[in-house]
Amino acid sequence: MTAVENRSAVRFGHTELPTEQQAALRKAVTFEWLTIGFLAVSTVLVFAVLGNSQAMKAAWIEDVLSFLPPVSFLLAARVIRKRPTEEHPYGFHRAVGIAHVVAAVALTVMGAYLIVDSAMGLLTAEHPTIGGFNFFGQTIWLGWLMIAAMILTAGPPIYLGHVKMKLAEKLHDKVLYADADMNKADWMTAAAAAVGVAGIGLGWWWADYAAALIISGSILHDGIRNTRAAISALMDKRARTYDDAEPHPVGRQLDEYLQGLDWVDTAQSRIRDEGHVFHVESFIVPAGPMPRVEQLEAARKACIALDWKVQDMVLVPVAELPSEYLPGPTSGGER
Hints:
Radius of gyration: 25 Å
Strand order of the largest sheet: 5-6-7
Structural class: mainly alpha
Shape: elongated
Largest sheet: 3 strands, mixed
Oligomer: single chain
Order of helices and strands: HEEHHHHEEHHHHHHEEHE
Number of strands: 7
CATH architecture of the largest domain: Up-down Bundle
CATH topology of the largest domain: Alpha-lytic protease prodomain-like
Strand content: 5-15%
CATH class of the largest domain: Mainly Alpha
């Protein structure tokens, strides 16, 4: 590969992205900008018909908070491209985790505030009112516009979330996954707000606050779940899949490959999830004499070829597996 090709390649730090991941990153950036554009329109639309509905207020605040994940992703996507430096020898991959924490904490705080605010309105039996407006001599109930706004803004996030979910898997991007997960659930917010507004129209004043509590609970749930996942990742929890559903299989794959080498007696790895890429330390107990440098280098290259996220890897020959560094009964990453 030429020097020009190296400079033009898309990288996360010193990790050069494969063609599939480069395309996924470009598409993810495009869709995050589309998300921001949609949110800019939807927040203005909802604010214009906000009225006195607590459910509409909660839905509008959720729309405003929905700016955080795409903005965090776009900022982090720029920062992580910086090469490692003397002061940051592991690179700037943790920018993804920091962005995840910021967005998650904001969701948690605002979700908790809205629950308290909505509950107080319900307990004090405040009766929200929705007025009307004159349209060519006819008085139109403002609630119809509120419901229409919710219906119009319910569909696009489902599509955006579906696309971004697939991209999050390809990029191993947990911020993008959190954003996609929130997008896919946005229709519930719109439906709850519409039901709350309809309840006011039917004289069920409590329906508005009940809908607001449902929306607030959804925001708080997203915030707590993402805060837990983001903080665990920054504390070097065992590397997991992009959706935190299970331990990442690359740890098991690395150990199986290394243990299959004829000059290796046993091997075990621990993996630090840096954001998009992994830092891997694999401890090897040789079956005989100390392996040659050529053997170690060939094994390292073969391990790196298993997964694009594994380029920052070290092999450590040891007399026996160090239990203080490899807690747990099984192999495959941090325990």
